[in-house]
Amino acid sequence: MPFVFSPCKDGSPNCKTEDGEFLHSHYNPQKEAKRFLESQVSNWKSNLFFLGGGFLYHPESLLEFPVLPKSVVVWEPEIDLQKFPYLKKKFLN
Fold it and tell me: Count H helices, E strands: the chain?
């Protein structure tokens, strides 16, 4: 699925599909990720899987939690996302 880079209202990187659906919140993706994780923390077991990492706001938000899973796996099937400069700069340098 092709993605188009589209910065959020707060300037954070984001992208949308050709149908206009945003991958993350178009206003504050970090806040969205933290809220989601807070709603799920009671369900955590020893391992946590992210199926589709996007811009990795959710895995990054984990660092703010006092208790972490033993392991975290992020699987990103969309190769196109790996072409975005934000990801290259942040994780491939």
Answer: 3, 4
pLDDT in tens, 52-91: 877 888 888 888 888 888 888 888 777 665 555 555 555 5
Q: Residue 41: what are its φ and ψ, rounded to 5°?
A: -55, -35
Which residue type does 24 have? H
Q: Where are the domains of the chain?
A: 3-91
One-letter amino acid of 5 = F
φ, ψ for residue 27, nearest 5 deg: -105, -50
- CA-CA distances (angstroms) from residue 21 to 35, 52, 62, 66, 89? 20, 15, 25, 33, 25
